[in-house]
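Hi there,

I know you've been waiting on this one. I reran it after we fixed the sequence typo, so this is the corrected version. Both the input and the resulting structure follow.
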Amino acid sequence: MMGNPPETRSPEELYDIYYGTSDTDHTENNFGGFATLEHALDAESAVYATLSRTVRTADATERFLASDNAMDASKRWVGNPDLDPEAHHQLELGYTRDAGAWDTTASVYYNDVSDYILRDVAAGQPGILLADGAEIYRNVDAELYGLEIEGTWTLRENLELTAALAWVHATNTTDNRPIAQTPPLSGKVQLDYFSGRWTHGGRVRFADSQNRIDLLSRQEVGTTPSWAVLDLYGSYAINDTFSLRYGIDNVFDKTYAEHASRENLDFLTLTPVKVNEPGRVAWLKLTAEF
């Protein structure tokens, strides 16, 4: 005779067996702010330094989610009521130039994070009482640093070239692990032509490969290869109110995926799979501005 199936536990029971707490009543007093020092190099350009502190409190999912699976611990997903708010302490150094025909912004930053809220897998880490592979949340220390650059150049009166580049490096310094879903070096190069009521443009979007991943995190779905796609677009101003916009995204119908994207599940195996971005898409929009 078959026995009764195990009972699904209450949220309080799950909190207790994974974190040793069932207290869901918390009060926080958080503070943040920033200070910026800017120095003009000339009438058109300046450099700046910004020091900031920002705090993010755990959201309802991170703190109180309680999804049990009595038969398979790896399918449990348990929020942590004891999460501390994550505090970001960031230094940013930047340069700006607004010269009409040449506009540029560039910045580099370093962000030291205390109590980063990490979605992780239970492996008996400090503060985690079980090592059964359930998805849990915990606080770790982290560091992020990177750069952002964007510039627009007027090549002729009716022709503009825009380029942008962004990169970030993120590490869970408590465990010396990369932080999952960190995007790779990415950017765009865009050319726009203006002629009366008409605008025509083309844009190449690209991203480098991302091989620096957190092998323990279920948020990662493997490495991601590099890619580049071409978009073509334009618009026509019908009058002062209405305009028609049109374009073709991913002109060459390239198969690619963003590394930092939502996962999906293979319904046969219930394993995460990487979701590709749309192929060639033609679109048409009518907009009105009053």
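Quick highlight: The helical segments are 11-19, 60-64.

Best,
R. S.
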